[in-house]
Prior knowledge:
Blueprint: H1 3-15, E1 29-39, E2 43-55, E3 63-70, H2 72-77, H3 82-85, E4 98-106, E5 114-122, E6 128-141, E7 145-156, E8 160-172, E9 177-188, E10 191-207, E11 210-221, E12 228-240, E13 246-255, E14 268-280
Antiparallel strand pairs: 1-2, 1-14, 2-3, 3-4, 4-5, 5-6, 6-7, 7-8, 8-9, 9-10, 10-11, 11-12, 12-13, 13-14
Amino acid sequence: MYGVTSGAAQKIDSFFGSASVEEEATVSRGRLSVGSRWDEYYDVRQRVRLKARVAMPAINERTSLVFGRGEADELVDGSGNDNIDALPNRFNDIDDADWLLGIGYTRDTKLKRGWSFGAGVRLVTPLEPYLRATYRWNKAFSDDWLWRIWPRLFVQSQRGAGMSITNTLDHAVNQTWLLRSWSVAVVEEHVEGVAWTSKLIAYQNLSDKSALSYAIYSTGETDHEVPVRDYGAELRYRRQTFREWFFVEYLTYLSWPRELPSEKREPVVGVGIEFEMQFGHWPGRPQASGRTR
């Protein structure tokens, strides 16, 4: 019962570079991406992201080294996966990116349900250590539906204690289409209200080397002066090119951002491009190298 939808979700997540690097302690996996984006509201922005997990069997088969570059706070609280990174207002400038170094421990090396733990430091001056614990709950309903809930507790020196919960519901329509409902909510000790993002996505498999995703989304924060900060729609085309581990992604979107109460919410059109290199073992993708045509 766990196979059909799980396999389709793994294939999509692997192709779009959003398979969690924390799924299995014995697997080394990561990705490096460089992108640029332009829209009428934020102008031109560039970004470099790196996230990797290196298995450490010499210490313990359940232990691994985790490091990355990007929005460190989102890596700690669990909101920084590719579903949320694709949103226009979360495309961070290169100068704002942080380095994060940590160690992870998973009670089950092939975790389907249970706890994993992490500790590390955000590499800034002064250093900002963190601790986190994540519970993964997965439930398949027939061959077509897969429900995943991942609550996470974290403590970060500059943020205090906090909690986040990620909710993902997948429906495999057929071999071509996968529908996904994805949402995340984050609460922090020193912040009033709840930060949230919700997204509905349809993935269309065009071939073994290309795919489209269509999405509508909204994001905001309760008790904020602007409770809904952005909403809109986006279209992404992603293609594997040159090598099986190299991807090019083109993005266009229409959004309605609003940061201040004095602003008038108006439609914003944007475009972007991103190049990504994947390394290590990614689920649902053969590991043999070779050129694509």
